[in-house]
Task: structure prediction
Amino acid sequence: MAVERSPGGTSLIDVLDRVLDKGIVIDAWERVSLVGIDLMTVDARIVVASMATYLKYSEVIGTTAPTSPAQELAATATESELDRAMRENVDLRRRLGELSVERG
Result:
């Protein structure tokens, strides 16, 4: 039995073929707050595409997508702020090591 297509309409197969061929990116960022206190933040990116399309355009998807507020904050941090944070991290690790030796 042969599958017949209507000449003027678009079938689900045609739509699915086009979506897989071109791809769709759904980018969502949601925050749940209660009385001004952030309880939860969800950052999601959903890509619907064939593997060939995804591999072909994956670099573009990664570089042109909007960033979350946390990523924007990290990108605007100056080098001196990063150096200060790294020094503080090293100092805290050293102090934690000293405390564990004293207890141990």
Remarks:
- The two ends are 78 Å apart (CA to CA).
- The first strand starts at residue 24 and ends at 34.
- Residues 9-66 form one domain.
